[in-house]
Amino acid sequence: MPQTFQQSLITEFRANAGKVGGPFEGTDLLLLTTTGARSGKPHTTPLGYVRDGRRLLVVASNLGAPLHPDWYRNLLAHPTVRVELGGEEFESIAVPAEGALRDELFARVVAEAPGYAEYQGATDRVLPVVVLELPDPDAAAPPIASLADKLVEVHTWLRGQLRHVHEETEAHFAARAGHEGDGEPPAPGLGLQIRQRCLAFCQALEFHHTAEDGHMFPTMEGYHPHLRDVFDRLREEHRSIGAVQSALADLLADVAIAEPYRFRAELARMTEELTAHLDYEEEHILPLLAEVPWPPAAA
C-alpha cells in the first residue's frame, strides 16, 4: 500500500470512527500501532481483521510477498501494540499463533476472507496469524485520582503479567513431563505465547524503573531527605532486578526460547526479587503519594 494512500486511509478512519470509503468500504479495519524494531518510533498500519470471540485475528500476509511485513517484525521486537477499532482504542500484547492453533485460526480467517488463501498460495512462507486480545469488559478499572493510585495500577499490571508468564511456563513443563515415555518427543524450547508476554513485561518493567530512577525518586527525595536509606535501597534493588531482566531479555532475543530450563530459573529469580521489591516500595512510598493528584495539573 503506497505511503500517501495509507496515511489518507488512517486519517479517514480516525475522522469517521473507523468507517472508510473507496476500495475498503464495508471492510472490517483496525489501526495497529507498533514500535519500530530498529527506530523505536511508532508506526501505524491499517489492517483487515477477523473477530473470533474476545480476540481479533490479523494476518501478516504482505499480499503474498516473500518477506514478512514491517509491522510483524516490529511486534516481534516490541509485543505491546496499540489498537484502534472504531471509536475504541486499547493496548494489547500481540501474540502470533503457532502450530495447530495457527492452522485452525487461519482456516477461521479464510472462511470469512477467502483472499488470504490466495496470498498463502503465492508464497512459500507460512503467513503468521497474530492474536490481539480485546479488553475484558467485566474488568472495571479502579478510579485513578492520585499518583499512589497510578503506581498501584502499574504494579498490578506488572504482577499480573509476571504471574501469567509463570503459569504458562509451568504449564509448558507439565505438558512436557506428560509426554515423557509415550513415544512423543518433548517440546523443544518455549513458544511465542510465553516469549511475547515476557518480553512485553521486561520492556514495561525497564521503562517503569528508568522513570522512577530518573524522575520520581529524585523529586521525592528532595521533599523527604530523611528517607534517603529507603530510596537507596530501592535503587539498589532496581539494579539487581535489572540484571535478571537483562538475562531474560537475552533469552528472549530469538523468536524461540531455546534454553527453557535457564529461562525458568531466571523467571523464578525475577518473581522472588520483584515481588519483595514491589511490596517494600508500596509500604514506604504509597503514603507519600496519596495526596499527589493524577493526572498532574497543567503548569
From TrEMBL:
It comes from the Bacteria. It catalyses: oxidized coenzyme F420-(gamma-L-Glu)(n) + a quinol + H(+) = reduced coenzyme F420-(gamma-L-Glu)(n) + a quinone. Gene3D superfamilies: Electron Transport, Fmn-binding Protein, Chain A, nmb1532 protein domain like. Residues 149-289 form the Hemerythrin-like domain. Pfam families: F420H2_quin_red, Hemerythrin. Belongs to the F420H(2)-dependent quinone reductase family. This is Nitroreductase/quinone reductase family protein. Coiled coil: none annotated.
